[in-house]
Design goal:
This protein has 274 residues and is mainly β. The chain has helices at 6-22, 170-173; strands at residues 32-41, 45-46, 49-50, 57-66, 70-78, 90-102, 106-116, 136-145, 148-155, 185-196, 199-209, 218-229, 232-241, 249-250, 259-260, 265-273. Strands 1-4-5-6-7-8-9-10-11-12-13-16 form a twelve-stranded antiparallel beta barrel. The protein has a two-stranded antiparallel sheet with strand order 2-3. It holds the Pfam family Gcw_chp.
Length: 274
Amino acid sequence: MNQLSPLTFALLLSTSLTCLAQGPDAVATPEHSLTGNLSLVNDYRFRGLSQTWALPAVQGGFDYAHKSGWYAGTWASNVSGNSYNNGAGLELDLYGGVKLPVMGEGTLDLGALAYVYPGARLNSAPGVATDKRYDNLELYAGLSLGAFSGKLSYALTDYFGLNGDTAGYAYFSALDANGSSKGTLYLDLNYTLDLGQGLTLGAHVGRTEVRHYGDLSYTDLKLSLAKEMLGLNWTAALIATDAKKALYQVGNAAGQDARRVGKAGLVLSVGKTF
């Protein structure tokens, strides 16, 4: 009788176990995937700050992913078109990167993100003309592990156009000869908890450290509840910041109707992923 060698037996056993683990209904990860998302919010908050003066926004985007971990995507939202951002009506985000498995169930996310505001121009300091744009480019590194996730973003450009000419406050420009806010950091920490019945609790804390403009640095907090219902994703979130009121408020061209964009508020959203 012929006998199987130890190596042949091991190979056959490995193949059998793999087939059993996958099962007859196992679905292989597609080589390419494309998903989309669309949502409506009563206030667009970016890192805790309102971008729409507490007015609604329509948002959506598309994401492409390769099974190797590489991905790219785009996302857009309407923003306030008043003097706060000098004619900006649209924010367009373009991003790409790679996600790599780490520590068993963990994921390392490395990428770059560009924020583009077509047609928008920053205010200049008094008497100084500028065509400076809000556009901003960041590198980021993120880590997801179970219910926890964190991400650190680093600005490769002046942080949304902020420098000595565009600060708008004379004492800011005197803080540094260069006046550049390149190197601004944002730390984003999150925890999610499955409450059952399709209900998810989320907790977030973020910290913006604006380089050379310490008075503009602030912390933002968010506590949210999310649920999928009627084929839609529903979310309610309490958002607050400790951003200084005098530095984070906006008004019309005459300086009237000033509003604090970092004020605490309830943000409601409904969306669909497809």
